[in-house]
Design a protein that fits this description.
mainly alpha; about 0% strand; 8 helices
Length: about 170
């Protein structure tokens, strides 16, 4: 039992982009459950808001902590050697995280910026992961696992929420 719990904790903490996305979905659902009005506009507003807070804000603050304070462990998880680049990724993540938190209860323009910056980063990282898988046969969990798939699909979800929000203004 303890081994299973340990494995679950490791999975949750190692795949934090998925974890924060799922927590954001849960928080949005709870927020909607407490509202009498559930128009299409309200639903998109709530899900986009919590996406900004969790999938961008808290996710990238966590990424900052992992790449700056646990750089060697993060590099090993990705299948790389530690380098000063870890700190650059960490501080870029701090910037994305702060913008995501600021976008939580703000206007469409800030949310567009909060989604677009990380999308460029994630799709670029996914391209790097693909290169590493092909050229270096790097199938470490931090390169070819859940992280790879969230790098591809979280931006798609963010842009879909933005599009739905724009089409259905509150």
């Amino acid at each position: 039992m303890a081994v299973m719990i340990g494995a679950l904790i490791k999975f949750v903490l190692s795949n934090y982009s998925l974890t924060f996305f799922l927590i954001g979905l849960l928080a949005a659902a709870i927020s909607l459950a407490g509202r009498g009005q559930r128009t299409r506009a309200a639903v998109f507003e709530v899900f986009l808001s919590f996406y900004c807070l969790f999938s961008i804000g808290l996710n990238y603050i966590y990424n900052f902590v992992m790449h700056v304070f646990f750089a060697r462990m993060s590099a090993a998880f990705i299948g790389w050697a530690n380098s000063p680049f870890q700190y650059e990724v960490g501080f870029a993540s701090l910037g994305f995280g702060v913008v995501g938190i600021l976008a939580f209860r703000r206007d469409f323009g800030l949310r567009l910026a909060a989604v677009t910056g990380p999308a460029c980063f994630l799709w670029g990282a996914a391209g790097g992961h693909i290169y590493q898988m092909i050229a270096r046969h790097n199938f470490s969990p931090g390169n070819a696992g859940v992280v790879f798939w969230t790098d591809l699909f979280l931006p798609v979800i963010g842009f879909a929420l933005l599009a739905g929000s724009k089409k259905n203004p509150a």
